[in-house]
């Protein structure tokens, strides 16, 4: 019989009180991997109470000792590196190399957290008035929580949890019910760390568990990563309940290619951006804007290279592109391609009918390129979150920037060019949180903040880097006079 997952609360693996479960499938083989409980408010309450109870002692644990857990956590993650990558592939469908990249990025966030004793320092000014000193010191705040998406089931929770707890907070993760197994394994490793009971907690589930986290009076802040409609709900709900919130939403990332770009090298890079993780990255390039004469050579090279990608099961090392997350996602992506064609785009590469030998029922969508896309078409505006690249044609640089800035999203944008002038103008004028210059996936490393603009992000402080220290601590002001 398939395993019904347990929650990790107060240092114990406990059954959820949920009456129902959500099946977790391998999207390539269709194997039923586990049943994920649709945890209830009572489950979330138990987790938050355990985290609250642990907070005071954990906060008093010296920060250097808290950081020592991160070194041991990193060692455990390194020991189980391949198991972690395999788990990501099995539940998510990406390729083995992509999963390895994800695990590596997750570990880099643990590295960053180990530096918390240095970076959570406060500051002081003597004699702010005669004989009076003023200090700003950083303090943790209590129980924080993360609500995370399916597409990076290992990495995204690790953007938050390690830094949050090393700052002295306690934590609850509510992963995606589509991909709960990566966190299940990570929490087995956290259990080996022998952290005090209740410092880290895991509650599986869907909407009800998310709402319970956001509405719980003892949760002080929520980090959310997911789609824009849900990010809006999270931002509003957390604000209504007086919580800190950072809500990272969906994306529609544009890539401009100038006529002066090296087309072959650019396309090699754009392949990874558009079709890496089967297009299910919040930084995935989704629309290429070919500027002027770049259009024809660019389109031909894109179609040629994308048509050569080997699509298959992620655990086969030769696979270059895996599945999308589910049969429902496949259907949604295929219908958006259809809508693009109905609205006038030309499918110069059509991945809808793809068959992968041995995995006939898998959720595969082949690389797809739609040419002749116009700014008002659905495929130019909506997040597709699949291996679909649209090509638009702009007469010049200024029109390309205008097309990009029309988008309601602003997660990332890239330009391929050999001109420093265009590169600078692009960075200066394009309204997106992450800009790539001759780089298709402009992913911030763990010591830099990561977040988008416009409808790709709701909040002030981004995830990762110095922003995360701001988010997970408060600055208390101390004014001292000794008579
Ligand atoms: P999603 O919004 O469907 O789900 C994200 C999380 O929210 C899950 O844990 C889910 O259980 C929960 N949830 C879903 N509906 C909810 C509701 N109505 N109320 C409360 N909670 C709810 O996202 P997904 O499909 O898992 O992930 C893909 C999306 O995430 C894409 O839009 C992608 O662009 C985005 N994403 C953004 C970033 C970023 O940094 N901006 C990073 C990764 C993914």
| Overall pLDDT | 98
- Cα(first) to Cα(last) distance is 73 Å
CATH C-level of the largest domain: Alpha Beta
User: Outline, from the CA principal axes?
Assistant: globular
Question: What structural class do the secondary elements suggest?
Answer: alpha/beta
**CATH fold call of the largest domain:** Aldehyde Dehydrogenase, Chain A, domain 1
State which percent range the strand residues make up: 15-25%
Oligomeric description of these chains = single chain
Bound molecules: nicotinamide-adenine-dinucleotide
The main β sheet shows up as: 7 strands, mixed
Q: Taking strands numbered 1, 2, ... along the chain, how are they ordered across the largest sheet?
A: 14-15-16-13-12-18-19
- In DSSP terms (H or I, runs of 4 or more residues), the helix count works out at 16
Name given to the CATH homologous superfamily of the largest domain? Aldehyde Dehydrogenase, Chain A, domain 1
Low-pLDDT runs of 5+ residues are none
Secondary structure: helix percent: 25-40%
Rounded to an integer in angstroms, the radius of gyration calculated over CA atoms is 23 Å
Count of folded domains: 2
Number of DSSP-assigned strands: 22
CATH architecture of the largest domain: 3-Layer(aba) Sandwich
